[in-house]
Amino acid sequence: xxxxxxxxxxxxxxxxxxxxxxxxxxxxxxxxxxxxxxxxxxxxxxxxxxxxxxxxxxxxxxxxxxxxxxxxxxxxxxxxxxxxxxxxxxxxxxxxxxxxxxxxxxxxxxxxxxxxxxxxxxxxxxxxxxxxxxxxxxxxxxxxx
Length: 145
Fold this sequence. Notes:
By secondary structure, the chain is of the alpha+beta class. It is built from three helices and five strands.
């Protein structure tokens, strides 16, 4: 095994070990995963508001190259998700493949969503950050509460 391959293997092992709890915490609950559906959006509270934002989007290849080449982040987890786009007053919910990218050496991370239709070559950067770490908490099933 050459040095680069060995280094990559160690990096993936380290990433897997440290981020396993984080990845599990970010995934859908077992009930929703078994049904293969997304959870309902929570009912708005009295402090609910809509935040208009600007999200950077590009082709899947271009966005992936920036995340990997510039920040050294590797795709770690993915799941089916959704986002609301304000093309009308009520908003339109669009499905997408949500991916968590992470660099196990610098602990930077990015979260993207891409159009699940292979004919639509679009990926958007939802957020990025630093100091990624597991929370140490676990998700409780409804029957455990």
